[in-house]
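FOLDING PROBLEM:
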Amino acid sequence: MQPSRKRARRYDPVRTRAAVLAQFAQVREAVRTLTPEQLARPTRLGDWTVRELAAHLTMALSGVTRSLALPEPAAAKPGLALVEWPSATADRADGIADDTRALARDHPDLDALYGEAAARFEELVPGADDERLLTTRVGVMRLADYVVTRTVELIVHTDDLNEATGLGIPYDRQALAACTRLLADALAQKAPGGSVEVRVPPFAVVQCVPGPRHTRGTPPNVVETDPLTWIRLATGRTEWARALDAAKVDASGERADLAALLPLMG
């Protein structure tokens, strides 16, 4: 029996835009404090320095406004659903890395770069139609959906920046919630089914993995973790076995092993 198709999760565009801007502002405040020595530090993202990572974070906003500046694609409907976005990003990694290095090289004044990105986003995005189609790196998407993906970019790379610098940049609650939910839904999309319940309190609960469907009482296969651990697992920042060993994940039941399904993003 095929698993039933679940209704796509809905996000409030106004709240999502506000969350994106709030997280971006917190990153900007932190980046202002970085010394030249800190900016030259390595990160966990290959050969990227902190400066390159900080520059890349502005692309979370500029990617939206750059797409809005292009003519609307002729497609009658989106070619890429929101829940499909995480799995579609891996093939673009090399191009994104090249663009990031060029951006960091050409904009020595990071605060000015952040200011330009925020101003352009605030100018163009709130007045645009949420249903407007955009040509993005990974396909044609609705504007409202693409803005949700910006919460993933910002939360994940804020975590990268915190790991590299120890700054302790806070995570906007709404942005963290949207990021967590999108990555949880992407897991359910990748492994449809109802035999495992994945809980990421307080933001997300999804059922996934083919097998006997749970209907009542305590599910026999349960995975539970916190939002940041889930995001690190979903994006390859940490491994399943390492998270289990560190007691960051509680997994019970013979099917509650997600190692083969992670990461969701390369």
Observations:
- The chain has a mean pLDDT of 94.
